[in-house]
Design brief:
This protein is of the alpha/beta class. It has a domain of about 220 residues. Helices cover about 40% and strands about 15% of the residues. The chain has a five-stranded antiparallel sheet. Strands 3-4 form a two-stranded parallel sheet. The radius of gyration is 29 Å and the shape is extended. The termini are far apart. The model has no long low-confidence stretch (mean pLDDT about 90).
Length: about 350
């Protein structure tokens, strides 16, 4: 073979190798794009199924709430129906349900059904209630007077200032471009409009002093629904700790321990038929609660109910947060929020 032929053969080989390399890169790139698109499609499918599961959990909650008005909602001969009957009966007595799982094949929903009366109605709080609430959340005491007075000025009628409050003429509201509402809050998130209330105070976060403990937030303790009485059959430990007796004395830890213990009944297991106090006097008699708290608590209020449903499909989660007004003939949604969680 001549040198010319060798050079031509070498060039042809190089071209062939480059062609193979380019084709390999193109095919590899196409395969990668197909892999990415398949992953995106798979995730979108899982996300949709998780969303459907979350909504299904809400429908399950609505079903139980509707059945809670029927004294013989389920047959007792089948265990599954008996379990549902107990849950519905407890809801009818104002007892919350937490962490119940609804299986939907490859998907599932974890559902909480909790009366809003288990939280403090922010529009019904007196000054001493605010102090307990802010103390529990870790808000520095020197900030309490401004926060309380600014809240009261925001919600009360007229433009008369409290000592540490703020009305329409305050520089804060002028800079924000709006006026105090002079009416009760419609949502807890509305606290963020009021002078002095920061995201850390409302939802939790870094404290003003970096050396202090993080603020725990107050939003999870509050609602804007109900008459202000706290349902001790479903309130959390933190909510119970904010209750104050007529003499101003706060709730002791051991009293709260008794409430949490005795409301689970003799078996100590949640979501069973012996859960809950039967009356306010029953709750006071079984625990160390001050009798003067009788006017501040309830055991059966469930006019407004919060439903939290977390749907899950193959590790992808979606949530629904809703509040319903519950009546004998209708369960009406009055708040609804959906969110992809991962």
């Amino acid at each position: 073979m001549t040198r010319c032929s060798q050079r031509q053969a070498g060039a042809a080989l190089i071209v062939a190798l480059w062609t193979v390399l380019i084709l390999s890169l193109l095919i590899g790139g196409l395969a990668y794009e197909m892999h990415v698109e398949a992953g995106i499609t798979s995730y979108a499918r899982k996300r949709m199924k998780a969303q459907v599961a979350a909504r299904g959990g809400v429908e399950y909650a609505k079903f139980l709430l509707a059945k809670s008005f029927e004294s013989s909602a389920f047959e007792e001969s089948e265990q599954e129906k008996e379990d549902l009957r107990i849950l519905a009966k407890n809801l009818g007595r104002g007892i919350g349900i937490a962490g119940t799982t609804v299986d939907m094949g490859a998907s599932k929903a974890t559902v909480d059904i909790l009366p809003e009366a288990g939280r403090r109605n922010v529009n019904k709080l007196a000054d001493e209630d605010w102090e307990e609430l802010l103390d529990l959340a870790g808000v520095p005491e020197e900030k309490w007077p401004e926060l309380i007075d600014c809240f009261m000025d925001w919600t009360d009628p007229g433009d008369e200032h409290r000592l540490n409050g703020a009305e329409e003429d305050d520089a804060f509201y002028k800079a924000q471009g709006y006026k105090p509402k002079n009416a009760p809050l419609d949502t807890v998130d509305e606290l963020m409009l009021i002078k002095g209330f920061t995201p850390a105070i409302v939802y939790g976060g870094p404290p003003p002093n970096p050396k202090s403990e993080p603020l725990r937030g107050i939003a999870h303790l509050l609602t804007t629904f109900g008459d202000g009485k706290v349902n001790v059959n479903t309130a959390s430990r933190d909510v119970l700790l904010t209750l104050t007796a007529a003499n101003g004395k706060m709730m002791d830890d051991w009293v709260v321990d008794d409430i949490l213990k005795y409301r689970l009944g003799n078996d100590g297991i949640p979501n069973t038929k012996d859960d809950g106090f039967d009356s306010v006097q029953d709750a006071i008699g079984k625990t160390g609660m001050d009798p003067s708290l009788a006017d501040k608590i309830s055991v059966s209020d469930r006019q407004f109910v919060r439903v939290v449903s977390i749907g899950e499909n193959n590790g992808v989660e979606s949530g629904v947060w809703a509040v319903f007004e519950v009546g004998e003939k209708k369960v009406t949604p009055i708040y609804w929020r959906e969110e992809q969680m991962q």
